[in-house]
């Protein structure tokens, strides 16, 4: 297991056989594009995103469905 020191404490993460080295996540300007959407249900979320001319990624649907059915 690897670890890094952060302002909020020590962060532990498992090593991966898929990556030859640790890849540190770095925040970038994509956070400026973040949008909050109503999410009482997956259908409500999908409708709001579609109405805004955006697309809900198909790969995210199962995770969102599980989180919203909860």
Concise summary:
This protein has 2 helices and 2 strands.
Question: What can you see in these coordinates?
Answer:
The structure is a single chain. The chain is α+β, with helices and mostly antiparallel strands and 70 residues long. It has helices at residues 42-51, 61-68, and strands spanning 2-6, 9-13. It has a two-stranded antiparallel sheet with strand order 1-2.
Observed structural traits:
single chain; two-stranded antiparallel sheet; 26% helix
Outline the fold blueprint:
Blueprint: E1 2-6, E2 9-13, H1 42-51, H2 61-68
Antiparallel strand pairs: 1-2
What is the radius of gyration? Answer: 17 Å
Instruction: Assign an overall shape.
Output: extended
- Mean pLDDT comes to 78
The main sheet orders its strands as 1-2
Helix content: 25-40%
Q: Count of helices?
A: 2
Rounded to the nearest angstrom, the distance between the terminal CA atoms is 31 Å
Which stretches are low in confidence, meaning pLDDT under 50 for 5 or more residues running?
none
Largest sheet: 2 strands, antiparallel
Question: Strand portion, in percent?
Answer: 5-15%
Structural class: alpha+beta
Order of helices and strands: EEHH
- How many β-strand stretches? 2
């Amino acid at each position: 297991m690897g670890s890094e020191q952060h302002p909020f404490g020590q962060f532990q993460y498992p090593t991966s056989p898929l990556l030859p080295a640790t890849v540190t996540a770095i925040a970038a300007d994509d956070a400026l594009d973040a949008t909050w959407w109503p999410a009482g249900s997956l259908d409500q979320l999908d409708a709001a995103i579609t109405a805004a001319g955006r697309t809900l990624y198909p790969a995210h649907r199962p995770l969102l469905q599980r989180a919203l059915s909860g």
